[in-house]
Amino acid sequence: MKLIKNGEFVEDRFVTVGDDDALPDGPAIVSLERWQAERETLRARNSPIGVKLQSGQEPDAIAGDLDHIDVVALDFPSYRNGRAYSYARLLRERHGFKGEIRAVGNVLRDQFQYMIRCGFDALEVADNITPEIFAENAGVFSLFYQPAADGKKTVLSLRQRLAARAQEKASA
Questions:
Q1: Which of 17, 40, 110, 155 makes an SS bond possible with 21, Cβ 3.0 to 4.6 Å?
Q2: pLDDT band at 158 (very low <50, low <70, confident <90, very high)
Q3: Residues with Cβ < 8 Å from 143, sequence gap 6 or more?
Q4: For 59-108, what is each residue's pLDDT tens digit?
């Protein structure tokens, strides 16, 4: 798998480890169950740590620990399960998480832009994804009706700004 972070292909520094696997010396991503069982030990590490949430595991389970977590990996088990979109928005907007939110699992190219809009800044993608394919699919739409975690202005706000500008010109 390749990793795209903030629109660029990058080397993945993190290793995802199983619940019974030894932790590497460097950055690691562990399951929610392992985080809960070994929280104090993991928080005391000198290496960055991430937590992977499965589809049914809500971010509230780690909300109090987000200051100690560098990456939250949200699993897309299938294209029909979109809970991770909501979880990414909750992490960004409700919990104010500033770290990396990573999409893992069934990450499809036609969903890149939606994932980014919801707050994902890293995507694990299939090996056949190229920078050109990513750019083409991440920039399909330039205007949006719904507000999202990416902070892009909506069509309504654009209309309001244009109307205010026209009003100012008419008043001058």
A1: 17
A2: confident
A3: 155, 158
A4: 999 999 999 999 999 999 998 898 999 999 999 999 999 999 999 999 99
For 122-139, how does the pLDDT look when each residue is reduced to its tens digit (9 = 90+)? Answer: 999 999 988 888 888 776
Instruction: List the domain range (segments joined by +) for residue 102.
Output: 2-141
Torsion, CA 91, CA 42, CA 35, CA 121, rounded to 10: 30
Question: Looking at this protein, which amino acid is placed at residue 74?
Answer: L
Give residue 160's identity as a one-letter amino acid code.
Answer: Q
Same structural domain, 89 and 171: no
Q: Are 34 and 96 members of one domain?
A: yes
Distances in Å between the Cα of 143 and the Cα atoms of 69, 70, 114, 137, 148 are 33, 31, 13, 15, 12
Give first-to-last CA distance, the chain, whole Å: 58
State which amino acid sits at residue 83.
Answer: R
Structure tokens at 154: 């909506």
Retrieve residue 101's tokens: 């939110």
| 11 within 8 A of 27, measured Cβ to Cβ | no
Judge residue 64's burial from the number of C-beta atoms within 10 Å of its C-beta, 0-12 exposed, 13-18 middle, 19 or more buried: exposed
